[in-house]
Amino acid sequence: MYVLRRLPSLIATVFAVSLLTFLTTSLLPGDPALQILGAENATPEAIKAVRTELGLDDSLPIRYLHWVGDALTGDFGRSYRTNEPVSQAIVERLPVTAEIGLLAIVIALAIAIPVGILSAYRAGSRTDKLISSTSFGLLAVPNFMVAILLILIFAVWLGVLPATGWVNFTDDPAQNLRSALLPAMSLAIAEMAVYTRLLRTDMIATLQQDFVTMARVKGVSNRRILFRHALRPSSFSLLTVAGVQVGAIIGGTVVIETLFAVPGVGRLLLEAVLVRDLLMVQGVALVIAVSYVVVNFTVDILYSYLDPRISHGRSTARV
Amino acid sequence: MRVHRRPMRGPWKRALASAGLVGLLLGSAACGGGSGDGNGDAEAGAVSEAVEAGDPVEGGSIAVGLEAETNSWMPHEGTFNQPGLNVAYAIYDPLMQRSADGEVRPYLAESLEPNADLTEWTLKLRSGVQFHDGTPLDAEALKTIFDTYLKGTGSRLAAQLAQVTSLDVVDDLTVVYKLTETNAAFPDLLVGASGWPFSPTAAAASGPDAGANPVGTGPFVFESWQRDSRLVVKKNANYWQEGKPYLDEIVFRPIPDEDTRLASLQSGDIDVMQSLRQSTVIRARDLEGVNNFEHLGSNAGGMTLNTSRAPFDDIRVRQALVHAVDQEALIEVLGGSGVTPPQTQFWSPDSAWYSEKVAESYPGYDLEKAQELYDDYINDPERSDGKPVGTALSFMFQCPPDPSLNELSQLYQALWQALGAQVQLQATEQAAWIQDMLSRDYDTGCTRVGADRDPYLVFDDAFTEGPLNMTAFQSPEIDEQLEILRTTTDVDARKAAVEEIGLVLNENVPNAFSGGTLTVLATKEAVRNLDGWTFPDGAEGNGANASTAMWGHVWRVE
Fold it and tell me: Assign residue B259 a region: left if phi > 0, alpha if psi is -120 to 50, beta otherwise?
């Protein structure tokens, strides 16, 4: 029921995103026809012929309607640059980005949860201070910098992981994981720091609540209090931010995929933007935006799992 | 190009070289651009360091790191820069190729002969050559595919083939290219994509997806391609050149980032890497166990001045701006200090068309002269921009957004402001910047100048009426020399014409230069013979020219 209530706003968001994506990319300076022909062939007649063929001379609303109509049936057109169907390019590349992004979140959470809990449990101690300052330090380092350092350590010096490149899961699962590890770690470092800080703050607040004191009085072990009783109510901010941060991760993949020469959507988008491959840019941007909206929609639904009051409509404050 | 053995170096040197990766990155993060590291023992110009190639070895696989992906492998759809050329020369054979002394000679073709007035070029094919799909390469096949290059909609070869009226079949292995007018430079076109036969049967079968499924006659057969990741080619067992290729497999991997491509070579992920970046060339020289095949390409850094617009329509202004520029300082900002020689003309010192005389005529760094010319213009009551006498020049300088180009722009700005000019900088994205230049809707800005092609093609594009004349500069003297280049195949006469054009350009400076472009193919020592390729008749080829190799001639030891 809760899901159904949220559905109209989801659809409205996706529609707004499609309109914005289309408008901003169409208004970029630089003629796609020129990019297709190359400067030396760009006679006015040739440009006109290509523009007509691509329907670039139609008015913006007409082009938008055509595009949305086709997009609804899964047809995003063919790339101006590579002649490859846009939907096929996205289908081939989305799993790569999704794998790296998910792995990054898993790595970040796997480290942030125990570290954040430890930090909160030992709030004010030397350990807490060390964790806090390290987190701030990691937050300040840009991901491309982390990427180069990781390559230097794990590929050039230790020689245990490949410096660049990608192996498909279907070709070799083990090699696939090896090729995903460094890009995922590069994205995970900053996320990890954010998650740690958030969890620490919420956890400290939770640990001061009555039910925790009660549990302590009853003699429940520290580990059980921290992981069973306190973690769940402390993870609202963490979950919200993890959802929102999916955007940061997608943004990060543009840089990270280029550095690691990984064939994901981030790199696809970057190269399409540079050569004004409009249909590709619009298709990829729409898919990214929709994934982002869907992830955050899922996060909303997860709230009701964390706090059943939400789905019963008694508390809408957090939604 | 000099070749010498590298001295041995300790492991600490290797560690330093990799630490340099981080250093450079820190540097560029902190100050927004990689500055030259002033490498004291670096040598200016192309220096190739390689172990002796030895005897050919059969078998083995190599991975080649390229600086970019190519959009399509269909000759008339693709944009073939150096990365694309490397792949293309594995899958396709060019009908013609350039020799060590700059001559264009038959490679896949058996011969190419012009008629008396150079309007018809008769090309004979070798017998028994087959495409990878088994289709024989005969006159009919060549005509079918060439007609696609010539007439296909949106063909990127349209402009360069505009002079070809038709390709006619004479007999089973002979065709004639009929041109609209005399063109002595025609064979040069068949070195590039116009001269790469793609199987017409495969092209028809693949339709719009042909660009992702290339079928040529080359030493390697296309196996698979995952865009932006890897393209795999396997040995062509039926290759027409006896005994070649040597390698069983090549994996081409586009790795756009310079630092990580170099790191991949160090870590052994790839065996060969290609680069056009000066700072990468310097760092590759310091790597242990790596051979460097360098070449100073003719596509140099530079700037264009829009001579159709005041004040750049006045020769004094153009000369003043160029005299005010210290090219060595520009090179330092671009990270090529000590390795990149200053550029003085459309041709690098490694090119057969280079001229000492033109080099000496280039307007060098001379502030006094610059100030004199500048003052002369702004105090001229008849000044072309119509502004009152004494008003400072004011114009915009455009450059694509890139950290090192931003720094370069700021340096230009400082140098010209010293004259008294008001210079506004604008970072314009590449796509929009090219469009501004094509429509001549700009003042001045940075661009690349020159190409390793026939001088007639290069100068005809750049300085006659047409979309590519971005400076809008034309001159009767140049037209006269172009006529010589177009109508004679005599090498000495053509060299003299190229020299004359160079002198006219250096006097009128529609373009200026910001340093040559050193290119490199850096390889693990096991990979051999990147620069030793030969023509089927044994003539010496032009080596690892502009970081491209003829892969059928390469082998690996071990």
Answer: alpha
